[in-house]
Amino acid sequence: MNEGARLPERLLLGPGPSNVPVRVREAISRPLVGHLDPEFLKLMSEVQDLLRWIFRTDNHMTLPVSGTGTAGMECAVYNFIEEGDAVVVGVHGYFGGRIAEMARRAGAEVTVVSAPFGEPLDVGALSQAADRVKPKVIAFVHAETSTGVLQPVQPIRQICDRHGALLLADCVTSLGGHPLEVDEWEIDICYSGTQKCLNCPPGLAPLTASEKAMQKLRTRRSKVRSWYLDLSLLDGYWGEHRSYHHTAPIAMNNALREALLIVKEDGLEARCERHKRHHLALVAGIEALGMRMHVDPNYRLWTLNTVQVPPGIDEAAVRARLLSKFNLEVGAGLGDLAGKVWRIGLMGINSSLKNVLIVLHALEECLRKQGYSCTPGAGVRAASEALT
Amino acid sequence: MNEGARLPERLLLGPGPSNVPVRVREAISRPLVGHLDPEFLKLMSEVQDLLRWIFRTDNHMTLPVSGTGTAGMECAVYNFIEEGDAVVVGVHGYFGGRIAEMARRAGAEVTVVSAPFGEPLDVGALSQAADRVKPKVIAFVHAETSTGVLQPVQPIRQICDRHGALLLADCVTSLGGHPLEVDEWEIDICYSGTQKCLNCPPGLAPLTASEKAMQKLRTRRSKVRSWYLDLSLLDGYWGEHRSYHHTAPIAMNNALREALLIVKEDGLEARCERHKRHHLALVAGIEALGMRMHVDPNYRLWTLNTVQVPPGIDEAAVRARLLSKFNLEVGAGLGDLAGKVWRIGLMGINSSLKNVLIVLHALEECLRKQGYSCTPGAGVRAASEALT
Known about the structure:
Number of helices of chain A: 13
CATH topology of the largest domain in chain A: Aspartate Aminotransferase, domain 2
Oligomer: homodimer
Distance between the termini of chain A: 46 Å
Shape of chain A: globular
CATH class of the largest domain in chain A: Alpha Beta
Radius of gyration of chain A: 21 Å
Helix content of chain A: 40-55%
Structural class of chain A: alpha/beta
CATH superfamily of the largest domain in chain A: Type I PLP-dependent aspartate aminotransferase-like (Major domain)
Largest interface: A-B, 69 and 68 residues
CATH architecture of the largest domain in chain A: 3-Layer(aba) Sandwich
Strand content of chain A: 5-15%
């Protein structure tokens, strides 16, 4: 047996990747067929239909981008934003900042409207910025993985309507865990990743774009800066013609299909409900341990929970102990929140009673080790009560 | 059992993907660890060391780009070519043309030096073009997957030396199948794909860059147009700091490590020798069947064989029958060679006596079905003799 087989089996309760069910691991290991094989072309169509289903959209342009979530972001930004475009980006976390940086590299005139990391965007400020610059696109992050904030979509859509702007939403950490209605909410450009609430390994980025967005793509003044991510070319491969563009990550597409089938068997509504329930149980436990959530209850993600590090606690030592003693990964703070919060993901199959209890138990043990004082077992008890 | 499990088991003798050995399929299906887990960071270092070994380089900047071979190409072009750079691209096939197109999108002043599809580049013409435009970079395809031509590297290196230009080589279909000496041949920028001679699913692009290339990256006048593929940022993740940039395709990296270990156990020299031997056997068989190879013997790839479609033969019908009757994929012609050749890949573990015999047998059967006349069993006999 080679060394690789000895990788530890972690419980992945960080910001993603989440754990991958056996069915998906079995799917990714299937023998390959060619990327132009009739059987693979069928599989591509199936994946696209399942993505339309989970995005709640009829958009023709719906496909898994051949890269991780960040490639999905770059694909969204580079195709629908071009040199000279006025763009407003709402930045209330690390990933909003990344969108702004990409938009600059795409040659756009970027106006950033910032909110503190842990709060939602200031819709009034966004609105004023839009009035000033008349943006072609307004971009924001629906579920900020770096802060744990869920950003309401509809108020931003209304600003777009006033200016005929496209709405671009990063849904990496909401797809499959939170309600997301691409068509009903009129999100023009939406992308996600596979390794969060879909419980698939990282490596593909589901993306969908409305006909209005595609119209902007077709009437660009300049070519898309990326060839690899140029949707007008990708449409040749994923659209009717199925003509060669690049060799799709075949094994990953097998895995994604299986992961989406599992979500479909679950049912979207039941799945979201489950995420909410276990999130609330975790919060009850965290508070019973005397700790505080970083985000206002009205804006909390169910999929990614930011917990403030209590004063005097060495947060890195806690994470290291969680990993070494409990084989349990939680995430560190990112950007402005580095050192200040832990990020606890409960995504897809990982959103379960068992996982809520184990993370509360383990966290309590690690905190005590550092002299933190709390009622023994209070977290687990509160969580368990919250669920009954 | 769901439908996906019923995908056929193909013998993949096209231009890639090639078949994936069980060890690699097992590796890709292992439970995930996080992308910043100490165990994954170790695995990243192992993959980088193995890539340095197979590229025959000491380059610090050596990593698997998180996308397919085309992402590797885009990463190579976008990092080391910037707006206004004079660039010469040798185009003797479809993929050379793609490099030229990407360089244009990167804002370069591109001079294309073309050769007919099936011939190597005209070094004299390249040299003259370089004298004229004083390029910062000369780019070409070492192993043209679209034509079956192996392009000698050293004469182009000499042109680079005269102008202090960087040498950029696409080695997607040569790495692990043909001799490739990145350091000895002074290739500054080199990339490949996983799904060819490495027998790993598609989804990562091994890439290496010399210190001289990195110096150019560090002194760019403008930011790299892609954020996802910006090597100065990727170096933060794959370099000493291991700071977050994007979530690496963890399962794919597991698979790549295993695939590279298999190549190492084989030994590079023995592996290349095996590719040559089976290539020669295939050629003997093809010619014994009265068909002709498309490329001059001095420039033939061992890994990808272009066979001219005999007059009067419906080439698509042959491929369809190979697939339906023999579960065997061979490739169609691409670009200028569409309809004119078949592309038969013998890559990595697929370069075997068994596969040479089955493809010759199956091809003969399909040709006869269309009334083609040849000595029965002549192909298989000639191949088998060539190997003794």
